[in-house]
Amino acid sequence: MDAGRGARDVLASESRVPSPESRVPRPMTQKTILLFTAPVYEDLELWYPKIRLDEAGARTVIAGLTMDEVRGKHGYPCTPDVTVDEIKASDFDGL
């Protein structure tokens, strides 16, 4: 170790282990995906894909019938980002 350099400086400059962010593939960074919600939605059918799409780098948008918060069958709340009458299919890469 060089004199005058702290252990953190050396580790930061000589680390061969990539950061977790650089190891995670983000193949959907340019994609926008639309998800739908309504009262008594199936929680896992909304949240599992949303979380995975977010992790893959996609922008996710949740559309509802109104902007009011709804609750899933198991009680998870969801507040839509937009209403279904505000969306245009051409703004999205997938559903």
Account of the 3D structure:
The chain has about 100 residues and is of the alpha/beta class. It has one domain: Rossmann fold (3-Layer(aba) Sandwich), CATH 3.40.50.880. The protein has helices at about 5-15, 20-25, 45-55, and strands at about 30-35, 60-65, 70, 75-80, 80-85. The strands form two sheets. It has a three-stranded parallel β-sheet with strand order 1-2-5. Strands 3-4 form a two-stranded antiparallel ribbon.
Produce a short descriptive summary:
The protein has 95 residues and is α/β, with parallel strands linked by helices. The protein has helices at residues 7-14, 20-23, 43-55; strands at 32-36, 59-64, 70-71, 77-78, 82-83. Strands 1-2-5 form a three-stranded parallel β-sheet.
Proportion of strand residues? 15-25%
Helix content: 25-40%
The CATH C-level name is Alpha Beta
Biggest sheet strand line-up: 1-2-5
Instruction: Specify Rg, calculated over alpha carbons.
Output: 20 Å
Any low-confidence stretches, pLDDT <50, length ≥5? none
CATH superfamily: Class I glutamine amidotransferase (GATase) domain
Tally of DSSP β-strands: 5
The tally of domains stands at 1
Write down the CATH topology: Rossmann fold
Order of helices and strands: HHEHEEEE
Count helical runs. 3
